[in-house]
Amino acid sequence: MTELSLHGVSAGYDAEPVVRDVSVSVGTGRWLAIVGPNGAGKSTLLKAIAGLVPWQGSVTLDGTPADSLSRKDRARLIGYAPQNPVLPERLTVTDYVLLGRTPYLGLLARESRSDLSIVDETLDRLDLDALAARKLGTLSGGELQRAVLARVLAQRTTLLLLDEPTTGLDVGHAQTLLERLDQLRREDGTTVVTTLHDLTFAAQYADELVLLDRGRLVSSGKPAEVLTTERLREHYSADVEVLTTAEGHPVVAPVRRIRP
Ligand SMILES: Nc1ncnc2c1ncn2[C@@H]1O[C@H](COP(=O)(O)OP(=O)(O)OP(=O)(O)O)[C@@H](O)[C@H]1O
To answer: Domain named ABC transporter: which ranges (predicted)?
Structure first.
């Protein structure tokens, strides 16, 4: 169970921060989606929470400063899946997912029966059983995406940071993956933070959104509060209509204006 809080977080790569002064909290078992136009700093913010880029400010997990955690403790608490992971093509899906158990292994120790059963269970949860013996290099983009999610889920962390988990998935597979994630969150109480380009998916799955533009937080709150036609025009330079489904979820629809 992990509550995540950020206060005045700035992060970047060189001298100039590309994310500035972001403050946001995510309650235990909640889902936060970071949205914003290309280059806004979404991935950088996620990497800052994961401790993968230099950052300033305060990041706490259940009140404990993230930078006071050892590397191993951090890996037991935070699971991070990058947007474009480097994948060892010759590894089988099972062996790749087993890498998620690394934070629990002692020096030179082999995986235990319990590690193997967690991997089996994770493969089963993500319908990857049939692909378990396949090498990563032979999988389709969508299958790989599921394998990446499986590795991070096998890590059994209470906070998941997922950078664009639906990249390259068709609408059905994207929906299935997000549903599975939501189910795991409900069953296990995992806190989820994702970046998502698809604003409709973000609105339908996340409890709260933060909208970044040029490194700054420009809006945060419930999806229907953040996703307004005016705000999307201002920050994305996009012509959209925000519709509402029968269930009350926002749908962000691009609109083409035919000019005479
Ligand atoms: N490794 C890096 N070194 C230097 N600058 C970087 C690096 N990675 C990203 N940046 C810059 O930081 C800024 C924010 O990038 P970031 O990837 O966080 O944006 P993003 O919102 O995730 O974008 P996108 O939607 O295009 O994936 C961009 O200007 C980008 O060029």
So the answer is: 4-239
